[in-house]
Amino acid sequence: MPVPGHRNRQQHVVRRGRDRRARTLMGPAGLARVRGQAPRAAVIGGGIAGLAAATALAERGVKVTLYERRPQLGGRLAGWPVELSDGSGATMSRGFHAFFRQYYNLRGLLRRADPGLRMLTALPDYPLQHSAGLRDSFARVPRTPPWSALGFVAQSPTFGLRDLARMNARAALPLLDIRVPDVYEQLDGISARDLLDRIRFPQAAHHLAFEVFSRSFFADPRELSAAELALMFHIYFLGSSEGLLFDVPNEPFPAALWEPLAGYLAGHGAELRTGESVESIRPGRHGGSHVMTGDTESLYDAVVLALDTPGLQHLVARSPQLADEEWREKVRQLRVAPAFLVSRLWLDRPVSADRPGFLGTSGYGCLDNVSVLERWEGEAARWSARSGGSVVELHAYATDPQAQRPAQQDSLLAELHRVYPETREAKVLDSCHEWNADCPLFPVGGYADRPGVRTPDPTVTLAGDLVRTDLPVALMERAATTGFLAANALLAQWGLRGQTLWTVPDKGRTGLLRTLNRLFG
Q1: Residue 23: which H helix or E strand, with range?
Q2: What is the pTM of this model?
C-alpha cells in the first residue's frame, strides 16, 4: 500500500482468477487517503452494492455512515436467526446463491475480511435434471472457450445430430461474438424465449439449460430481454475461462460473509446503522444532501443509493427534490420480477448420500432447484449429524401471481418427492418459507431507460444489480461492481484514488468466431 498522500497513477494489480484475458479497469488516480478534513458520505442500503461502496470510500478515509433498514446486513443475502422445534437455533435466509469464479469484484470485496476466501467452498458439480430423464453436468466441461461451449454441447444429451442440423446457425452467430454494450442494441428488443426460438435450439436444451439460466434472473424467459440471456452466455461460456463451477459459503451468510466485513468496515471508521430506515433526502442549500430518518436529519457531502427497486422507488417518491424529473421517471418505470419462493425444510431422515449439493430442475412444476445444505454448510451439517436428518432448500422462481401461497409451498414439497423419492417417507420437523418480489426485472426494451451509476446530481450516485452498466457483469457481480463504481465517481471528485475493477472480456475472445459473425451475422 502506498504511503498516505502518495499520488499513484500506476496502481499495483493483483490477478485473482485463472483467466489471463480478464479485463482490468483502473480506478481514478489520486491520493491514497484523505488529507485534512474528510468528506462525509451516506450509503443507503446494506446489501452487496452498499457494502462495496462503503468499503471503497472508508478505505480512502471518507467518513462513511451506512444505513440499512433491516436488522441484518446483506440485502437479499441477509440471514436471521430462527428457533427450531427442538429448541435449537438455526439461520434462515432468502436462499442459495452461487459465487462464480468470474465474480472478480464480489470476491475482491469478500477478500477484505478473508484474503484467502476460506469462507467459500467449491461444489464439485452443478447438475441439471429434467423430469423426462435428461440430465446435464458441468463437472467435465472444459473451462477455456470455445471448448467450454463445444464440450457442453458434446456431452449434453439434449443436443443430438438431427437437432444440431435443424438449428439456425445464422441466428446463433451473435452469441459467438458478444460485445458489451453493443449486445443491447442487437438483442434488447426481443425476449429470451424469442431468441431461443429463432435459433431453433432443441426443445430439450431450451428447457433444461437455457431456461434454467434465464430463470436465475427470477423471471419468465418470455419477459426477460434476450440481451441479458446472451450476456450470461458470454460471461459463463464464451467470454471467460473461469468455467461454470462455483463456490458457496461454508457457513450461513451472516457468519461467513457479513459479520467479518462489518468488522472490517468498523475498523476503517465506518458507522453501520442497521435497523434504521432513511425516509427522504433533500439537497443541502450549499451542496450535499440532508438525509432524514425517523428521528434524525444529517447533512452529507455525498450519498450512494444502494437500494433494491421497491426501496429506491419509495425513497425517490418521498424525496421530490432529488436529482431531476427525467431521472425520477426512469426510477418510477423500473419493474420487479415476479415473486419467488424459498422453502427450507428440516427432514427427520437424510436424503440419499449420492444427491448433489445443488440441483437445477426443469419440468417439475414450479420447482426450479433443490439444495441439500449439509453438503456444504457447517450449521446444517452439524444439525444433520445431531439429528440424523437433512436440511433441504427448494426454490420456485417467477411464481404464478394467482396461485395461493400454501398451495405453492405444498406443490414444492410434492415435486421434491418426485425428484428425490426417498423424501416421500420423511417427516418435516421444521419449515420456513420466504416469499419476496423485489428482484429487478430486465424486460424487453428496458435497457435504454435504465438509470446508471451517475445521477444528474454529481454528489448522488446509484448502485445495485438494478443499475445499467456497460460492463459484462450480472447478478451479484453487477451489484458489487456498481457499488465500487458509485464510490469511484465520488472519490474522483475528491481527488482520491479509486478501486481497480476486473471483468470478463467485453467482447468475443475467439478470432474465428468473431470472423464468422462479421461475415455471416
Answers
A1: strand 23-25
A2: 0.93
